[in-house]
Amino acid sequence: MFTFGRKKKTSNLSDQSNDKTLAKTQEEKRGLFKVLKDGLSRTRENLTGGITDLFRRGEKIDPRSLEELEDHLLMSDVGIEATEKIIQGLRDRLKKQKLEDGQSLKMALRDQMMGLLDPVSKPLEISTDLEGPFVLLMVGVNGAGKTTTIGKLTKRFQEQGLSVALAAGDTFRAAAVEQLQAWGERNNVTVIAHSGSSDPASVIYDAVSSCKAKDIDVLIADTAGRLQTQQHLMDELGKIHRVIGKVMPGAPHEVMLVIDATTGQNALSQVEKFNQAARLTGLTLTKLDGTAKGGVVFALAERFLIPIRFIGVGEQKEDLREFNAKEFVDALLDIEE
Ligand SMILES: Nc1nc2c(ncn2[C@@H]2O[C@H](COP(=O)(O)OP(=O)(O)O)[C@@H](O)[C@H]2O)c(=O)[nH]1
Ligand SMILES: [Mg+2]
Q: Which residues face 286 on adjacent strands?
């Protein structure tokens, strides 16, 4: 089993270099946290911009302050159910006289938010002891960021010492196959594609067989963008899923929906329909850097409980980050430890 984010322990270091290493990792952490904070700045502004006065209050919090907060969350794509959960928890604390001032309100809000996001904060784990590749099927609407995310994940996996191949399952546009092939050539990654227009299920079927034979660790399969309202294309995803399971029982091991966070509430219907068609096991939210609608993360977590694996906060490779509930909430509320 292989988990990201767990750095290998370094041994045989003197105390001094241990200190240096520690300082360096803390510095790196701060730097990475800043990237996340910058990426989430529009969402943070939307979510907390109008209520920072509330957090600065010296006196006791009253029910009216909570209503103010509630209105704010509702207007920031957090959604009715998730907002209710957050506010109910705060009301309970208010009753128990635990909200002394603005600062304790902020800390209580942080707890409530983390309570919602913790259950979906589960890193993607790649098993390497399978009878074939770990198969990652990428699905989503057009322009969500599937192909970009595939590129970033490929590099991430390679840096972890895993061998990776790609399946050009977006057979809808010839340019999409070429885009993936060109990228594969530049980065020395095998891309399995069929020439001419063909059936995505058969491309991915061949790719799984080929990875089995070549002992490749991870196969990432691209698919054509489709709207969740196009039932025949949703059915096609179901077929792709079944075909993969035939060539390798238990596969795909991860079905990841890539969501453009700027779509806000539409993300909810995307998750619902794609989940019905292809049993999602993970979500990636891209373009959080370009939107004030990042509050939708709470709505998604509350409604579906599907792990959020990665979030995209920019176009660079390091801007695709493993989702971490605590980091995310602290970046949103501007809490630095
Ligand atoms: N700002 C920003 N742009 C992104 C992010 N992820 C993807 N993009 C851009 O979104 C556009 C569509 O991406 P693409 O991977 O082709 O989408 P696909 O149709 O789902 O394969 C490209 O211009 C990407 O550079 C992100 O996290 N932040
Ligand atoms: Mg694409």
A: 260
Question: How many Cα atoms are found within 13 Å in the side-chain-facing hemisphere of 180?
Answer: 26
Counting from 1 in the atom list of ligand 1, the atom nearest the Cα of 290 is: 1
Cis ω for the linkage preceding 252 (within 30 of 0): yes
Q: 50 in ligand 1 pocket by Cβ < 6 Å?
A: no
**Confidence (pLDDT) at 10:** 38
Phi, psi of 134, deg, nearest 5: -80, 120
Contact, 309 vs 283, CB < 8 A?
yes
Using one digit for the tens of pLDDT, what is the confidence trace for 165-177? Answer: 999 999 988 888 9
What would the mean pLDDT of 269-278 be, rounded to a whole number? 97
CB of 302 closer than 6 angstroms to any ligand 1 atom: no
Q: Quick one: what percent of the chain has pLDDT higher than 70?
A: 93
Largest CA distance in the chain: 70
Does any ligand 1 atom lie closer than 6 A to the CB of residue 263? no
**Partners of 165 in beta bridges:** 190, 219
What is the mean predicted confidence (pLDDT) over 103-116?
A: 96
* Cα–Cα distance for residue pair 282/318, rounded to 1 Å: 20
Helix (H) or strand (E) holding 231: helix 231-247
Residues in the chain: 337
pLDDT 10s digits, 197-251? 689 999 999 999 999 999 999 999 999 999 999 999 999 999 999 999 999 999 9
Nearest to 280 by CA among 232, 246, 234, 313: 234
Question: Within its chain, how far is the Cα of 224 from the centroid?
Answer: 19
Q: Check if the beta carbon of residue 139 is closer than 8 Å to that of residue 234.
A: no
Helix 41-48 vs helix 15-39: angle between axes, to the nearest 10 degrees? Answer: 70
Decide: 169 in ligand 1 pocket, CB within 6 A: no
